[in-house]
């Protein structure tokens, strides 16, 4: 279980994208559009209880927060609730049973990764999704043999926004954090990236939550589409 950790305050970074030699991506909402299957897992919990399904558009912004976000959105239940642990287990069982029914890479991400590979720029994945869910999905999407590292939410004692997962990935890449760009669609991604000393990019095309908009996360770069992200990453020299 991830240990509680303080959330680093957002701050303006100083790294330069053109000096980066590798790229790390958040998974849900950044590389892969997993929301359809995550929302389906939450809505199955509702229909099993005789409740109406909620609109996809209502739950989609919560997908990057995983079980916590979707159970909260679907039932108004948080981690402090006495039933949360059992509901989280139920949600994860639903999701694991149908983990890659409608999930795909975001349009344009495949071409972006192809371009990085062709230029010899290493890339990896750092997600808060637990390993038993991360690896099968990464494999089904054809990324397992290509990603230079995959760090899940339970790989280190802390999950994002703690910098430990990102620093673990930097160690696996044998690079200093300041020459790595980290891209994510949640405020926690930017907080973790800053705390790790990486160049941060907010993926505003992702799920992004319901609180602050990505333009207020103080990321060094904000991109509105995978195409815009690809143009930004064209500055990398590898």
Number of strands: 8
Measured between the Cα atoms of the first and last residue, the distance is 35 Å
Overall shape: globular
Q: Low-confidence spans: pLDDT under 50, at least 5 residues?
A: 1-13
Count of separate structural domains: 2
SSE-based structural type: alpha/beta
Radius of gyration: 17 Å
CATH architecture verdict of the largest domain: 3-Layer(aba) Sandwich
How do the SSEs run, as a string of H and E? EEHHHHEHEHEHEHEEH
**Percent of residues in helical segments?**
25-40%
For the residues shown, what is the average pLDDT? 93
Q: Largest sheet, described in full?
A: 6 strands, parallel
CATH superfamily of the largest domain: HAD superfamily/HAD-like
CATH fold annotation of the largest domain: Rossmann fold
Q: What is the CATH domain class of the largest domain?
A: Alpha Beta
Q: How much beta, percentage-wise?
A: 5-15%
- Assembly status: single chain
